[in-house]
Specification:
The chain is mostly beta strands. 0% of the residues lie in helices and 52% in strands.
């Protein structure tokens, strides 16, 4: 059974940093897309960042415009773990952040692409 478990969320002041982790178990996703989404209260779940496999140990990363230049997605295939380094955090980044994994490598910014989801981790940025 596939499980995705996020960690690393918390409360941080504006301008601060957090690093989210997502540990996958049950199978590997080395050749598939994995990504991060977030959902703020009263809003739909939205794309944050994703990485899709394009070659041996090589991934293409895509980001939402709102986080470009501040967030960095990375993968450690040995540990079967996905990361999201979040710098220069803003109050509008406050949300529950979800890790997701796909059986494919297509349309990596779409929620519908992803087959597996974690339970989410809360990120709160105070002003």
């Amino acid at each position: 059974q596939v499980q995705l478990v996020e960690s690393g969320g918390g409360l941080v002041q504006a301008g601060g940093s957090l690093r989210l982790s997502c540990a996958a178990s049950g199978r590997t996703f080395n050749n598939n897309a994995m990504g991060w989404f977030r959902q703020a209260p009263g809003k739909e779940r939205e794309f944050v960042a994703a990485a899709k496999w394009i070659g041996i140990n090589t991934y293409y990363a895509d980001y939402a415009d709102s986080v470009k230049g501040r967030f960095t997605i990375s993968r450690n295939n040995i540990r079967n773990t996905l990361y999201l380094q979040m710098n220069s955090l803003k109050p509008e980044d406050t949300a529950v952040y979800y890790c997701a994994a796909s059986n494919t490598n297509q349309r990596i910014t779409s929620r519908n692409t992803y087959d597996y989801w974690g339970q989410g981790t809360q990120v709160t940025v105070s002003s």
